[in-house]
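Researcher: I'd like a structural prediction for the single chain below. Treat it as a standalone chain; there are no partners to consider.
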Amino acid sequence: MSKAKAPVVILVRVSTAKQETQRQISELQAYADWKGYEVVEICRETVSGRAADDDRHGLRHVEALAQLGKVRKVLVHEISRLGRKNSVAHRFVETLEECGVSLYWHAQGIETLLANGKRNPAAGIMLALLSEMARSEVEILWERINSGLAEARRKRVKLGRPIGTTVERAAMLLKTRTLSAS
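Model: Treating it as a single chain, here is the predicted structure.
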């Protein structure tokens, strides 16, 4: 008699529609195949890692699967895929653990629950560290952007829309918002 395959869900996130999830999916699918897991669903999110909890429909869906007992593990590529807010990552992991569901993140090969179902203390420490690093990556990016803009201003580089542009302000703002969301 063969052992039943553990049901898992793959959760992937990208920030913009121009980004691809396929690399995350293929690596996590290969891991699931290697471990003999049954992937019951692949949940894709296209949302900023800094998005509010209410905008994280993928996380909420995965939590619902866990609460319904449909999965035993959630596979993500790295902690930053949960989000770039510590509170979001920690709350998500706590919800999973309350359901007896383990989170596995592939980049470090770590699971939040041990084989006996108890919390993995090393995973808790790594979760805290990596979620803080994910959060600080955003701050570092903004610092670099602002530093680059300040340097351009110092060199008197013309920033903004070209002089004489014929595009209406509202249309330009819409286009800029669409590009910056990318």
